């Protein structure tokens, strides 16, 4: 039993998700919403930042790995 | 967004992840990778939708419905007491409970209030007038809760620097705010706030509109009295031509 996604797959997924969420969190406005979906913007921004930070951590791990292999 | 939909996404995503783990021997790696990505995505978006959807949301009309009768009661008290003067928002030094708020509506004009701690009873002989708990008191407490401090520990600069963040970013009850300070006059502009309808209703109650202002002005006057430590009166409340911006003129009296 082995999870098929590698560390780099997860890193790519985090990058993709964090970009989408950060863009949504910045563009979304409670005053001109066109949908009925109610969103707590502060929480959305928090999740976007957490995902961004997680992605950056994976990048740091990758850089450290490259440096150690030199 | 239905919570059931979010829960369904989350559960289906988790199911896919576990299925991928269990069937790791039976499928090709590419199929498993795609299934794991889909499972991870569904779990994430399900959890995210549950997290970012506010648990309670009420229409803004409820504000008007729930405050009008209270304001009408204050209007009746002011009318029957024949009070026409401006209400004075008292700073903590005049109050027994420093964290409370009180507005004093005098029978005659005061340029400065007699010093001392006033009893929070309705009718008072010295100074001559009545004491009311202002309609913005609860709003003031909410402001303090959101800012995580009490206004008695802050100053006017703190209020000036934090009003925009408080009303626009934290509470999301207005689109824009601005404070101008000119000597003992403070002018606060609030654009596109949710109390617009309540404030329009307050204008139909002339005594309360003249004496203590609408609920938002009252909350801001309470905050001003608390941060400055000086009695404050609301000189004037005016709406812009398009009705979107409210301008509140507050005057700080001599202590």
Protein traits:
heterodimer, A: 70 residues, B: 255 residues, 8 helices, elongated
Description:
The complex is a heterodimer of chains A (70) and B (255). Chain A is mainly α. Helices cover 71% and strands 0% of the residues of chain A. The longest helix of chain A has 29 residues, at 41-69. In chain A, 13% of the residues are buried. Chain B has helices spanning 3-22, 29-52, 61-80, 137-147, 156-170, 196-203, 206-211, 215-228; strands at 88-90, 102-106, 123-124, 129-132, 176-182, 185-191, 232-239, 245-252. Chain B has eight helices and eight strands. In chain B, helix 3 packs parallel to helix 6 (196-203). Chain B has 255 residues and is of the alpha+beta class. The A-B interface holds A 1-5, 9, 13, 17, 21, 30-31, 36-44, 47 and B 1, 20-22, 24-25, 29, 32-33, 35-37, 40-41, 44, 48, 51-54, 57, 169, 172, 175, 192.
Mean pLDDT figure of chain B: 85
Q: Tell me the structural class of chain B.
A: alpha+beta
- Counting DSSP E segments of at least 2 residues, the number of strands of chain B comes to 8
Q: What is the C-alpha radius of gyration of chain B, as a whole number of Å?
A: 26 Å
Please report the number of helical segments of chain A. Answer: 2
- From the spread of the alpha carbons, the general shape of chain B counts as elongated
Report mean pLDDT of chain A, rounded to a whole number. 84
Which descriptor suits the 3D outline of chain A? elongated
- Indicate the multimeric state: heterodimer
Give Rg of chain A in angstroms. Answer: 16 Å
Biggest interface pair, residues each?
A: A-B, 21 and 25 residues
Low confidence ranges of chain B = none
Secondary-structure element order of chain B, as H and E? HHHEEEEHHEEHHHEE
Order of helices and strands of chain A: HH
Helix content of chain B: 40-55%
The helix count of chain B comes to 8
State the share of residues found in helices of chain A, binned by percent.
Answer: over 70%
**Poorly predicted regions of chain A:** none
């Amino acid at each position: 039993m082995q999870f098929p996604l590698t560390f780099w797959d997860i890193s790519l997924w985090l990058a993709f998700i964090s970009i989408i969420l950060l863009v949504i969190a910045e563009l979304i406005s409670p005053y001109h919403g066109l949908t009925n979906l109610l969103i707590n913007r502060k929480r959305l921004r928090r999740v976007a930042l957490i995902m961004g930070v997680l992605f950056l951590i994976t990048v740091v791990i990758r850089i450290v790995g490259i440096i150690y292999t030199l | 967004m239905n919570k059931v939909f979010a829960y369904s996404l989350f559960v289906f995503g988790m199911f896919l992840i576990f299925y991928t783990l269990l069937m790791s021997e039976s499928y090709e790696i590419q199929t498993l990778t795609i299934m794991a990505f889909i499972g991870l995505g569904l779990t994430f978006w399900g959890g995210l939708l549950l997290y970012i959807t506010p648990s309670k949301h009420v229409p803004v009309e409820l504000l008007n419905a729930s405050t009008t009768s209270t304001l009408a009661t204050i209007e009746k008290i002011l009318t029957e007491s024949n009070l026409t003067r401006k209400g004075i928002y008292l700073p903590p030094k005049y109050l027994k409970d420093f964290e409370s708020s009180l507005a004093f509506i005098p029978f005659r004009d005061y340029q400065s209030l007699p010093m001392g701690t006033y009893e929070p009873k309705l009718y008072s002989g010295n100074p001559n007038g009545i004491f009311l708990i202002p309609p913005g008191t609860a709003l003031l407490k909410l402001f303090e809760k959101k800012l995580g401090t009490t206004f008695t520990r802050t100053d006017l600069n703190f209020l000036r620097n934090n009003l925009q963040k408080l009303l626009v970013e934290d509470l999301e009850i207005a689109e824009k705010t601005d404070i101008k300070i000119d000597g003992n006059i403070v002018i606060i502009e609030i654009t596109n706030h949710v109390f617009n309808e309540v404030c329009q209703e307050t204008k139909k109650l002339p005594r309360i509109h003249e004496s203590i202002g609408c609920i938002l002005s009252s909350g801001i006057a309470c905050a001003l009295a608390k941060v400055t430590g000086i009695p404050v009166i609301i000189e004037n409340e005016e709406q812009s031509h398009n009705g979107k911006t409210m301008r509140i003129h507050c005057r700080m009296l001599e202590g």
